[in-house]
Write a structure and sequence with these properties.
The complex is a heterodimer. Chain A is an alpha/beta fold. Chain A has one domain: TIM Barrel (Alpha-Beta Barrel), CATH 3.20.20. In chain A, about 35% of the residues lie in helices and about 10% in strands. Chain A contains 14 helices and 8 strands. In chain A, strands 6-5-4-3-2-1-7-8 form an 8-stranded mixed β-sheet. The model of chain A is unreliable at about 1-5 (pLDDT under 50). By secondary structure, chain B is an all-alpha fold. Chain B contains 4 helices and no strands. Chain B has helices spanning about 20-35, 45-55, 60-70, 75-110. Chain B is extended and about 60 Å long. The model of chain B has no long low-confidence stretch (mean pLDDT about 95). The chains are: A alpha/beta, B mainly alpha. The interface of A and B includes residues 217, 228, 270 and 274 of A.
Chain lengths: ~350, ~110
Amino acid sequence: MGLSLIKSLKSRNSELSDSQNQLNYLNDSLVELELPSFEHSLLKSGHPRLKPSQLEIFQINLGYMCNQTCKHCHVDAGPDRKEIMSKEHLEKCLEIVSKHKIPTIDLTGGAPEMNPHFRWFVEEATKAGVSEIIVRSNLTIILANPKYHDLPEFFAKHNLRVISSLPFYQASKTDSQRGEGVFNKSIQALKMLNEVGYGKEDSDLFLDLVYNPAGAFLPADQSQLEKEFKNNLERDHNIHFNSLFTITNLPISRYLEYLIASDNYEDYMEKLIDAYNPAAVEGLMCRNTISVDWQGYLYDCDFNQMLEMKVEQSAGQHLDDFDIDKLAQRDIQLNQHCYGCTAGAGSSCQGAVA
Amino acid sequence: MEKTYYNPRDLKKFGDIAEFEPKLAEKFFDWYGAVFEEGALTAREKSIIALAVAHTIQCPYCIDAYTEDSMSKGVTEAQMMEAVHVAGAIRGGASMVHGVQMMNKAKKLSM
């Protein structure tokens, strides 16, 4: 199957480009299927509400512009998206991270490198002494334009942790999800990262890959898949990386559209709900992360950001109102998509959690 | 009688077999779970074996379940189809090797 979607939901004026329509669909369908709500499952497993733990990750979405249009993208990102975070908001982010000594900045998008202030921000964050800076790079951006060809050196110079999606170690599955030719370009980019020292044993430059299923099924055991990826990528392409993170696809945005169109939605939701694992609740990323959108609004996670579910009002919903104590007291905003993070071994931007 | 012998939704009710005989069901499901744990064979290898056996015994529930299980464990389409060919070859071979029995009998009966 090739990449049939070449435009974002937004540019196609799809009904699902309205996040409220997505939430209505999720909620109505669960009632219709007589399936328990996420809040009900959480309550049954001893959590009347979900509270944050220590804030460790400040995840900044630098914008929804991307050189790729992946079939499953929960951001609905693509070349036709123009939303980009301003320098003023980035300055504010830096001020907050420095003031509260938040250990990790996690840069995501879209393709975060396409934000014109990306390099400036990384340089400033490095100067400010932030312990860890993650860039979620889609890999192909490195080859997309000559101005990006030196990104591996730039990442290495600033000791960024690179986390990149590679749905499979063979071309067909990767291309069916991320677009024709993406696998070969990703392999080329991974080689460039390896060349500057990323992912090598005894190197302190970390390169992690993200696996998310190219279809309507859940990921298997993370360590077993990591072995498979390592063996195959090393054997076929002499590529090295540190860890593989398995991420479950959440039923939102373009992945929700795929589930509905392929008649997999009902089965997928049942699978997620059957696989609800109370042991995954403790490590949920919404508990130690704050996600910031391009306009400076705050969310419990990147998925809530895409559903426009801001942190609760009393916690302060914008960078300008940032109050770490109020945020620590907040109730995390929940909806049916949250089942994606509690299924099986759990799922987060850092992979399995249970 | 049901209109069809197989209903995909019945797969989700597998655990209900305990309703008529709980003790044996418990033993069966404990054993079943242990069989598929990582051991001398990986969970992935066991999933491929299960998929091949599912085709040999032509169990539609098992084919659905172990196609999905194999895919989630990173088994490729080509690998799954090779496993089905292995199942087919053993089935075909089992018939063909009985040709020797037929020949033995035929030769014994012949002058």
